[in-house]
């Protein structure tokens, strides 16, 4: 007597959906893991925000978010300039001193011409451009290493700031000067608007123009760029000029905020700017980095500063934490690059 084999359809049917879903879930998990590896600082940013939201009720308020944005504005300008310089394989140590020299210049001009605020802004930017031009000439034409050239100009600009004020701050600036950093347009502070415009212009410049391609090319391989017919010297010169000009504008914003200019204004700002660029994934060897990465690094640092202030963490411990973050970011970036090259 032939007995029909029992049907296995009933047994297999419930198991089929998991078998079909398994590979899909595996691919999704792998995609998430790869994204996390490629964008580790985004995860760090999210974790930092979640931590401060948990630790402080004030952190997530609209007023505090505005405080972070306003504090980030002057740093954003010098970080954008630093991005260009680092993409070419250089570094600009002079921007902190340029901020001071430019602020002192703007203060002197506005005291003599209180009705011409635009003249003070122009004078400050021109001071920054002049310092950047000297650095750029030394690097591009004389072959001076960027570290040495900008270190020298850092000292020159710092000395100039003290000379302009005879070693003392410049106070008693007209109220109109304060309007530069404290005016709101459609409810948004003017420095924040300047920062957003700076982001937009730099993103377009680096991703949609031949100038951006030249900057990446020069930083990636200067010799090949010369062979290809690119004017490497002109590109190198230009990035330092832009960096200096943006630092000059940052000096105006900072001095306008406190309605005063003093020779030590901007001291150490160059380190935070470099940190923002490096944390954002740029290579100090040049040729690799993005404006979006710099934006991420900038706001990670500013968020960290703000959150630690809210938690009343001493300033010296804040420096330790930021230093560890910079080292960890660079180490993580090196690990990601090695993993991609396998």
TrEMBL record:
It is found in: Cell membrane. Keywords: Cell membrane, Membrane, Transmembrane, Transmembrane helix. Residues 1-24 are annotated as: Disordered. Its main location: membrane. InterPro entries: ABC_transp_permease (IPR001851). The chain crosses the membrane at residues 35-55, 67-87, 93-110, 117-138, 144-164, 185-206, 237-259, 271-300, 320-337. It is a multi-pass membrane protein. CDD domains: TM_PBP1_transp_AraH_like. The keyword Chaperone does not apply. The keyword Membrane applies. This is ABC transporter permease. It comes from Microtetraspora fusca.
């Amino acid at each position: 007597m032939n007995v029909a084999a029992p049907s296995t359809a009933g047994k297999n049917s419930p198991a089929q959906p998991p078998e079909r879903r398994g590979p899909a879930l595996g691919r999704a998990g792998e995609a998430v893991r790869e994204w996390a590896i490629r964008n580790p600082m985004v995860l760090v940013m999210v974790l930092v925000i979640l931590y401060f939201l948990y630790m402080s009720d004030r952190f997530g308020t609209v007023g505090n978010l505005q405080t972070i944005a306003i504090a980030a504005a002057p740093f954003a300008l010098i970080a954008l300039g630093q991005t260009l310089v680092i993409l070419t394989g250089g570094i600009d140590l002079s921007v902190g001193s340029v901020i001071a020299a430019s602020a002192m210049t703007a203060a002197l001009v506005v005291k003599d011409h209180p009705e011409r605020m635009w003249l003070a802004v122009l004078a400050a930017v021109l001071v920054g451009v002049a310092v950047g031009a000297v650095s750029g000439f030394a690097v591009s034409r004389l072959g001076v290493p960027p570290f040495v050239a900008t270190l020298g100009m850092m000292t020159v600009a710092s000395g100039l700031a003290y000379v302009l004020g005879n070693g003392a701050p410049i106070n008693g600036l007209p109220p109109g000067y304060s309007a530069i950093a404290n005016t709101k347009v459609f409810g948004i502070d003017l420095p924040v608007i300047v920062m957003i415009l700076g982001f937009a212009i730099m993103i377009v410049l680096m991703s949609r123009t031949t100038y951006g391609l030249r900057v990446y090319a020069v930083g990636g391989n200067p010799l090949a760029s010369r062979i290809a017919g690119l004017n490497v010297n002109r590109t190198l010169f230009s990035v330092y000029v832009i960096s200096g000009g943006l630092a000059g504008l940052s000096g105006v914003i900072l001095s306008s905020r406190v309605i005063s200019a003093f020779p030590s204004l901007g001291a150490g700002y160059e380190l935070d700017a470099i940190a923002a660029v490096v944390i954002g994934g740029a290579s100090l060897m040049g040729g690799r980095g993005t404006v979006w990465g710099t934006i991420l690094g900038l706001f990670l640092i500013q968020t960290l500063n703000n959150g630690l202030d809210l938690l009343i963490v001493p300033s010296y411990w804040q420096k330790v934490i930021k230093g560890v973050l910079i080292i960890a970011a660079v180490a993580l970036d090196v690990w990601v690059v090695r993993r991609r090259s396998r």
